[in-house]
Design a protein that fits this description.
Length: 303
């Protein structure tokens, strides 16, 4: 597993990181299986684990804390403030009091006394009080590096502030709308964590194939959040036919081919999928394949 510097934070992280959320963190998914996936990631060289207080209906942090008990101090654990799971729903709250309380609860659930990386979950509006609050948390020694998990507008505003070590944004072969922001972040020395690097496997011919409850969960989430991208995803089905490489390896390698990307966050509940994802580290895609992906992307954008 290759490692990359997370901006100017001083942290060195695996270029593929483990997303501790989604179905992996749900109570319906057996914790022993969840633990085996974490062990598999660790064995594969992963040292960056990303989660959030509202992930998996509020269950993900606690699960990750139990599984990594006594070992997390040697890893880079990333979580969020600004989003909470309360009374069965997601709640946004960027008030200084709420964020400090949220961080304290996250540290308790994760069984940590210091968090290596803390993200705003979304860009706060107004920003000044929230930014001042997290800087105070950093001064107290509660957190190390600071980041923002956001979209296009929030990423641009965060870069202008110049105080964040990392941006967490969506970028994949189907959706490259944030490519200019990622390039600007690289020029500024800001790390980039990529969410949805596999593009919800919209390029797969088997995306509607259901073999387990988790397949239903992930498909419904893709339909809810990315329905408009299904047609674009079809333009990349040719990556399923590349000899010697699996489609998800190609999708991840494409993201990691961007020198301004620090780490791609992947989440799964299947050991075989995780193994394939881990194998994408260090893959160099042939020039002809990269060119074909770029051309398909231009066509998808035009559509």
């Amino acid at each position: 597993m290759k490692q990359r510097a997370l901006g100017k934070s001083g942290l060195s992280v695996s270029e593929i990181s483990f997303g501790a959320g989604g179905y992996w963190g749900m109570k319906a998914f057996d914790e022993r299986q969840a633990a085996r996936l974490v062990e598999q990631a660790l064995d594969g060289g992963v040292n960056l684990f990303d989660t959030g207080p509202n992930y998996s209906r509020g269950n993900a942090e606690e699960r990750l804390g139990r599984i990594l008990k006594g070992r997390a101090q040697d890893l880079v654990i990333s979580t969020k403030v600004g989003s909470l799971w309360s009374d069965g729903r997601n709640v946004k709250d960027f008030s200084p009091q709420s964020m400090e309380r949220s961080l304290q609860e996250s540290l308790r659930r994760l069984q940590l006394d210091h968090l290596p990386l803390l993200h705003f979950h979304g860009y706060p509006n107004p920003a000044d009080p929230a930014v001042e609050a997290v800087l105070k948390l950093k001064d107290k020694g509660m957190v190390g590096a600071l980041g923002v998990s956001t979209g296009l507008g929030g990423a641009k505003r965060a870069l202008k502030l110049g105080i964040f070590d990392c941006l967490m944004v969506e970028y994949n072969l189907v959706d490259r709308s944030l490519a200019p922001v990622i390039e600007a972040a690289g020029a500024a020395g800001t790390g980039i964590m990529v969410k949805s690097p596999l593009a919800q496997t919209l390029y797969s011919r088997d995306i509607f194939k259901i073999t387990a409850p988790s397949d239903v969960w992930y498909l419904l989430r893709a339909l809810k959040n990315h329905r408009h991208k299904f047609i674009q995803g079809r333009k990349f089905r040719f990556i399923n036919d590349v000899e010697g490489l699996k489609a998800s390896e190609i999708a991840l390698a494409y993201v990691l081919n961007n020198p301004n990307v620090t780490s791609a966050v992947v989440g799964t509940v299947r050991p075989e999928h995780l193994q394939t994802n881990l194998g994408a580290s260090g893959i160099e895609l042939p020039a002809g394949l990269l060119q074909r992906i770029e051309l398909a992307g231009a066509g998808a954008k035009a559509a």
